[in-house]
C-alpha cells in the first residue's frame, strides 16, 4: 500500500518556500454536481495525518475521519466548489482552475498572507497565474499535502451530493455522487436531466438532443 510522503514539501521548505500549498480536485468526471478542490498547507511532519493518501484509495469512513483531523492540525486549508451551471458556462478545465483558486483564496485568508509555492495534482490542469508552482502526475499518490487536499475536496463534494439526493431522490446521488454509473444512466434516461446535471457533458447533452 502506497502512502504519500513530505519529501517534496521538505525540499521546498529548505529552499525558503515556507508556505507550500498542496492542491487537488474531486469531481472532474461526474455527469452531475459541482467540481471541488481542496488546498492544504503543513509546515512540519507533526501535521501529517496518519493513513491519508489519494482519497480515491481510502474508504468513506477513512476519509470522513481524516477530514476533520486535516482541518484541525494543518496550518491552513481551503475548499472551493464550482457548480454545474458554471461548468456548463466555462467548461470543466476552467471550472477546475476556478475551484482551485477559490480553495487557495481560503488558505490565504487563514494565513493572512500569499502562498509561496503550489504543488498541484495533474499535469493537464491549467496553471494558476502569479504563483511558483509544480503540476505533478499522480501527485495525490506521492505528496502528502496534495493527498490531504484530495480528501477535503472529496468529502466536501460527497456530502453536498448526499444533500442533493434529498432534493432529487430519483437519481440515487447518495450512491454514485453524480458519476455515470449504470444506475445513474438508467435514472437519467427515465427522468431526464435535473437542475444539477452538466449539460455540456456528452451523455446529458445527447439525451437533451433526442
Give a structural overview.
The protein has a single domain (7-167), classed as Nucleotidyltransferase, domain 5. The chain has nine helices and five strands, in the order H-E-E-H-E-H-H-E-E-H-H-H-H-H. The protein is globular, with a radius of gyration of 17 Å. With 210 residues, it is of the alpha/beta class. A five-stranded mixed sheet has the order 3-2-1-4-5. A hairpin with an 8-residue loop joins strand 1 and strand 2 (35-41).
Provide tags for this entry.
Nucleotidyltransferase, domain 5, alpha/beta, 210 residues, 5 strands
Question: Ends: how far apart?
Answer: 46 Å
Cα gyration radius (Å): 17 Å
Q: What kind of sheet is the major sheet?
A: 5 strands, mixed
Give the second-level CATH assignment, the architecture: 2-Layer Sandwich
CATH class: Alpha Beta
**Total helical segments:** 9
| CATH superfamily annotation | Ribonuclease H-like superfamily/Ribonuclease H
Taken together, the total number of domains comes to 1
Can you tell me the overall shape?
Answer: globular
Side by side, the strands of the main sheet go 3-2-1-4-5
Query: In sequence order, what are the helices and strands, one letter per element?
Result: HEEHEHHEEHHHHH
Uncertain ranges: none
* Average pLDDT reading: 96
CATH topology tier name: Nucleotidyltransferase, domain 5
